């Protein structure tokens, strides 16, 4: 059982306990609540309820994402995407919704729906929530554009990723995609330079071996 889950449960139970006690007090002291001083107390109690409902809403959003992942892992992509769409309606512009869109993009990619997947990754970049997903969305967008046969856009996206996240662990596959797209677009010399750069940046890795093999004359 993760420590994070335990902390969340403690926080959730503490808020629930506070709400229950507060509501009991209101029922037992209705006359005070109706007075001027009671109005202030009632506002504080309503504030507690709002905090609890907000917290519960976020919890529900993560649970819906978990359900979507479960459907996908069972091979039920349609049901998974339905859950993600419901999540967008329920909690748009929240971290859970952002992770949901990233997952939806992956589901669409695996289904061969590259243009829809690219649109989904782009939506994460447009929405801006959460920013921690930007490198994943941008890197996956470039790889998806290449898979869709749009090498011109894929090359531009790949270069944008490398300019911003050159040390990210997704950099090697993005570098490889960029090199392939440059070659596909017909710039042999620039492609050769890209393969050589991969060999230098990632020595003693499968990426370097792959790049060196591409450099060998056919």
The amount of helix comes to: over 70%
CATH architecture classification name of the largest domain: Alpha Horseshoe
Mean pLDDT: 79
CATH top level of the largest domain? Answer: Mainly Alpha
Shape call: elongated
> The biggest beta sheet, please?
none
Going by helix content, strand content and strand pairing, the class is mainly alpha
- By oligomeric state, this entry counts as single chain
Note poorly predicted spans. Answer: 1-23, 29-57
Taking the alpha carbons of the first and last residues, their distance comes to 54 Å
- Annotation field: number of helices: 11
Number of domains: 2
DSSP, total strands: 0
**How big a fraction of the residues is strand?**
under 5%
What is the CATH topology classification name of the largest domain?
Serine Threonine Protein Phosphatase 5, Tetratricopeptide repeat
**Element order: H for helix, E for strand:** HHHHHHHHHHH
For the record, what is the CATH homologous superfamily label of the largest domain? Tetratricopeptide repeat domain
Rg value: 25 Å
What is the gist of this entry?
It is built from eleven helices and no strands. With 218 residues, it is mainly alpha-helical.
